[in-house]
Design goal:
Layout lengths: L5 H26 L10 H24 L6 H5 L2 E5 L7 H16 L7 H4 L6 H6 L1 E5 L1
Antiparallel strand pairs: 1-2
């Protein structure tokens, strides 16, 4: 297995983030919900953030265990999420991986830097869930 580099993983993440941002914006505009473009109170900002992060979590959680083994960004950059044996991850592995990932975001994304230095190019969320991101 060839492990995905930090830069390649970051590029895939940014593509997925952009896609979810577009979907989020369209979703909120159609439903008339507060989004980042029309918030005026702290409560509306928090509401918009909760919705966006929920959509982002759902996107990564669902796409990691689908046959594509990753979101659009990973597919375009020919990456996939696998278990330690190179197999597709399960529903529960994806759930645990993505809960761990979003907890790291609360830590100012610093644990993601581990990818640069780890032998298998794993972030802490990958280590916790016993997953890898590899090139196809």
């Amino acid at each position: 297995m060839v492990y995905a580099s930090f830069r390649r993983r970051l590029a895939a993440y940014l593509l997925d983030f952009a896609l979810v941002s577009i979907i989020y914006t369209l979703f909120t505009l159609v439903l008339g919900l507060p989004n980042y473009f029309d918030v005026s109170t702290l409560e509306e900002v928090m509401s918009a953030q909760r919705l966006f992060f929920f959509m982002l979590f759902l996107y990564f959680f669902i796409t990691d265990f689908l046959p594509s083994q990753g979101g659009i960004g990973k597919v375009l950059l020919k990456l996939k999420v696998v278990d330690m044996n190179g197999n597709k991850i399960s529903f529960s592995d994806s759930l645990f991986r993505n809960i761990s990932k979003f907890l790291q975001i609360c830590l100012l994304c610093l644990p993601f830097v581990v990818v640069i230095f780890s032998k298998r190019k794993q972030g802490l969320h990958d280590m916790f869930s016993k997953c890898l991101v590899v090139k196809q």
